[in-house]
Amino acid sequence: MTRKNKIALIIMLLFGVGIFWFEVRKLNLQQLWQNVVHLHFGWLLIALVCMLLSWMFEAFVVQIFLKGRTKYFPFHNAIRVPLVEQLFNNITPFASGGQPAQLVALMRSGVEAGRASSVLLMKFVVYQGMVLINFIFTMVVGFDQVAAKFSALALFIALGFVLHVSVIAMLLLVMYDYKFTKKVVGWLIIPVRWFVNDKRAKQIKHNLDDKIDSFYQESLYLKREKKKVFYASVLTLIQLLFYYSVPYFVILALGYTNVDFVRVLVMHVMIVMIISLFPIPGGSGGAEYSFKTLFATFIPSASKLVLGMLLWRVFTYYLGMFMGIWALAVKPWKAPQTDHS
């Protein structure tokens, strides 16, 4: 990690402590402690296992896309990729550091740079597609309930949905109408020229054209490798199911057993939609507010709601940071050298 990344990590940890202090400052601390003592730790263990399995299935996706493209890539190396991604997603605005960090992790494992970029691009496309499927299911099943009770949050959820649909639409446009996409980029650059000089505008267009060219070439590979895409899609759906299940087991750990699994899942998907709109790393602030607002319907106790929010963030946010630090410290395995003597 660079010095800048270490500072970002410390800032986000301190920010998290500040948010938790802000939430507990008016609570009865003795009551909060009693809630901690009476937690059902077996359910918390299952929540932890869900997060670990989520990362494990993401590692399987990496291995699937590398199969036949590299001779040696064991699970030890594959699991480092999602963990490093977690760390850098969680300390950079809009999770922008995750992709470059994964690229470095793959290259340090012996994967050639172009091949590593290709794998990450395919993984990104599949992930966005499966996230969109989850979002559509959520909008159909539960959006009307949220809109009726929480109109302000419903707007953020709708914006998050539109954002993800736009990303998928752009990816499909590149895959199936490459030339038209280039024209669209040219049109979009026109208003950019109003704010930057001509040299900068040309540089932006050149960079976008390079990314479009790169993605188009990879889309041809995706179309040929339908079986890999199918397997990766199924594994990604399972990965997301484990991730979205975490708050359900946190609620059970708090002692609320009469909760509907699908409703909790839907609420968590909506929170993820909202988080995607916030530029602050991990959506800090917005994530906690969304959890408290949406999950208050399941957790009526104020102290248990704050405790549930903390446990949820520990599993889905802070755990990823520390696992990512561990993944950085662990060296990848290199292919065994054959003795020709």
Automatic annotation (TrEMBL):
Membrane topology: Multi-pass membrane protein
GO molecular function per UniProt: phosphatidylglycerol lysyltransferase activity
Keyword Aminoacyl-tRNA synthetase attributed: no
Metal-binding listed as a keyword: no
Family: Belongs to the LPG synthase family.
Record function comment: Catalyzes the transfer of a lysyl group from L-lysyl-tRNA(Lys) to membrane-bound phosphatidylglycerol (PG), which produces lysylphosphatidylglycerol (LPG), a major component of the bacterial membrane with a positive net charge. LPG synthesis contributes to bacterial virulence as it is involved in the resistance mechanism against cationic antimicrobial peptides (CAMP) produces by the host's immune system (defensins, cathelicidins) and by the competing microorganisms.
Stated name of the protein: Phosphatidylglycerol lysyltransferase
